[in-house]
Amino acid sequence: MFTGHIQEIGTVIAVDHDRIAVRAPKAAAGTPGSICLNGVGLMIVQTGHETDVLEARLTAETRRRSTLDQIRPGTRVNVEAPLALGDPLGGHLVQGAVDAVGKVVRVDDEGTSRRLWIKPPDRFLPLVVPKGQIAVDGVSLTVAEVSRDRFSVALIPATLQATALAELSAGDRVNLEPDLLTRLVRRWPSDPGRAVGQVVAALPWAGRVSGGQGMQKALAQLSSGGAVMIWDPDREGEGDVIFAGARLRPEAFTFLLTQVCGHPTVPCAPEILDRLEIGPIPGPGDRHGTRPHVPVDLATGTGTGVSAAERAATVRRLAHPEAGPADFLRPGHVFPLAARPGGLAERAGHTEATVAMCMAAGLPPVGVCCEVMNPDGTMAKAADLEIAALRWGLPLLDVDDLRKHL
Ligand SMILES: O=C(CO)[C@H](O)[C@H](O)COP(=O)(O)O
């Protein structure tokens, strides 16, 4: 048994079909027995007190199930000697039994830390639990986020310094071993996965949600002034962050402008725009049938109308049941869109989705929607949206979910 707490980084000296030799002074000076190399538990066949090199036995099974199938002399590997009774558990219980080989799909530098995104085989995903433990190349790590087909782990400076994980880049393969408890629970015969799912659903959450329960959470989020992300896979192929207009705070508008980075617009039920005498912008409109109306500012404002506080105040006034035409200057800096009278049944756009969500949350039919743009200027797609939703703590729903449950 190991603990995923790496004692040294060794260097592969030689490897053939049934042996691997690694320069690892600490481990080579230890007692013969087993050793964990990049998360693979192996039997030591020879230690070299004089050469700093240990040799361990490889089998065809081990090579087939791990990255040791392609290991080469010169590769640096994480080395851990087995636990003795009474040793501190520096990480978590690691068996050295690799369950799957995953692929590093993305590496994000985050100040002095680094985030690895790893795509495991589909069969392994149920064993990856947010905030649970996982051994990656033998290193005990906490799962930061789980997205549809991948998960992330955050590497703090101490881990980057003490392990060979610092050398990983996109495309590299890694050995994965799930947390022992998760592995055991998943094998329990009476479907504990469902029970765990129910517990998780009752917790504060973010990321992909669906079904009636997901919808309830999303509506609760909106009515408390929070945001929800809506993915439209088929029509525009874009995802929007939406807020309820009546609850819009200045910091929410700042978030849209500085992090979400798309074009914030204000979907309204058509009767609201009629009442406020805010007319459509003439022209054939965009290629998806969105209905932009004349942009407005609050007539009582004293600035340019551009600040987050002023734009949020303009949106809140648009949502106010007692607002009238004279409350707004035309043109301004807040861009209303008219939803179709038949709502989502007539058109499955973000405009209609925003209005429908506000109404279902018991709020006036005015909201804000803003497309999620990646930091490189491209529009966020499904995987980017799932990552963003987890980062920002937002529930992510499909337009189709809304059509089914609103
Ligand atoms: O602001 C927009 C277009 O100008 C956005 O695309 C927004 O998502 C609303 O449009 P739609 O209802 O077509 O999804």
Automatic annotation (TrEMBL):
Q: What is its EC number?
A: 4.1.99.12
Q: Where are the Lumazine-binding repeats?
A: 1-92, 93-189
Q: Which Gene3D superfamilies match?
A: 2.40.30.20, DHBP synthase
Q: Which domain of life is it from?
A: Bacteria
Query: Domain Lumazine-binding, which positions?
Result: 1-92, 93-189
Q: Which GO terms describe its molecular function?
A: 3,4-dihydroxy-2-butanone-4-phosphate synthase activity; hydrolase activity; riboflavin synthase activity
Q: Would the keyword Lyase turn up in this protein's UniProt record?
A: yes
This protein's pathway: Cofactor biosynthesis; riboflavin biosynthesis; 2-hydroxy-3-oxobutyl phosphate from D-ribulose 5-phosphate: step 1/1
- An individual GO BP term: riboflavin biosynthetic process
Q: InterPro entries under this entry?
A: ATP_synth_asu-like_sf, DHBP_synth_RibB-like_a/b_dom, DHBP_synthase_RibB, Lumazine-bd, Lumazine-bd_dom, Riboflavin_synthase-like_b-brl
Work out whether the entry's keyword set contains Membrane.
Answer: no
Tell me which stretches of the chain form a coiled coil.
Answer: none
PROSITE patterns of this UniProt entry? LUMAZINE_BIND
Keyword list, A-Z: Hydrolase, Lyase, Repeat
Signal sequence segment: none
Question: Which Pfam family, just one, is annotated for this protein?
Answer: DHBP_synthase
Function (record text): Catalyzes the conversion of D-ribulose 5-phosphate to formate and 3,4-dihydroxy-2-butanone 4-phosphate.
NCBIfam families referenced in this protein's UniProt entry, alphabetically:
PRK09289.1
Among PANTHER family, the record links this protein to: RIBOFLAVIN SYNTHASE, RIBOFLAVIN SYNTHASE ALPHA CHAIN
Q: What is this protein called?
A: 3,4-dihydroxy-2-butanone-4-phosphate synthase
What organism does this protein naturally occur in?
Nonomuraea muscovyensis
Query: Which lineage is the organism of this entry classified under, starting from the top rank?
Result: Bacteria, Bacillati, Actinomycetota, Actinomycetes, Streptosporangiales
